[in-house]
Amino acid sequence: MALIRFCCCCFSLRSGMLLLGWSQALLSLLSLSGVIIADSSESTSSINQLLGKSLRTLYVLLGGSVIQTIAAVFLLYGVYMRKSYYILEYVKLETLLHIASLIEFFLYLVLEHSTFSSQDIYIFLGFLALNYGLAVYYLLAAYSYYRIITEDIYAPLIQT
User: Can you tell me where the transmembrane regions are (predicted)?
Assistant: First the structure.
């Protein structure tokens, strides 16, 4: 049994997963190209000023963009070919990525707390709640679509 039947209250789960997959692929490729352009630019001092004291942040963004692109390909392939394995791998990969980024955000918040005002912390926590609330909803939608595909594949075997 699927956990939810519609994505965003008006799309079927398949349409919602296609929309999510294509938008995630587009945004991750744009992010990937932005990171590559920033890495190959000659003025590293402006990048260091923008991203922090080292280029480590840039390479974390690069790794995240690559993982997001791979996850989007898994989702799109799984939806188009009705392969439940790839959709489940998408859910696993996205869950791990969100947990890792949540740990990274909280470490950054703890390590850099002296530079934040209390208003900045509330804005930061509001952003985290909104971001991860949407992430949980879309992961739940993807898992529901996985369950629907799995039930459709194994339903004839159960009825006999």
Answer: 58-79, 91-109, 121-140
User: Based on the number of CB atoms within 10 Å of its own CB, is 90 exposed (0-12), middle (13-18) or buried (19 or more)?
Assistant: buried
Q: Identify the CA nearest to 139 among candidates 99, 82, 81, 80.
A: 99
Q: How far apart are CA 125 and CA 23, in angstroms?
A: 25
Which residues touch 39 (CB under 8 Å, ≥6 apart)? 55, 58, 62
| 5 touches 147 (CB < 8 A) | no
The label of the residue with tokens 């990525």 reads: 97
Rounded Cα distance, 58 and 91, in Å: 25
Residue 4 within any structural domain of the chain? no
pLDDT digits (tens, 9 = 90+) for 31-64: 888 777 766 665 556 555 555 555 666 677 788 8
**Number of domain units in the chain:** 1
State pLDDT tens for residues 111-126: 776 676 778 778 878 8
Residue 152, domain member (yes or no): yes
Q: In terms of residue numbers, what domain contains 87?
A: 11-159
pTM flag (> 0.70): yes
Neighbours of 104 (CB within 10 A): 13
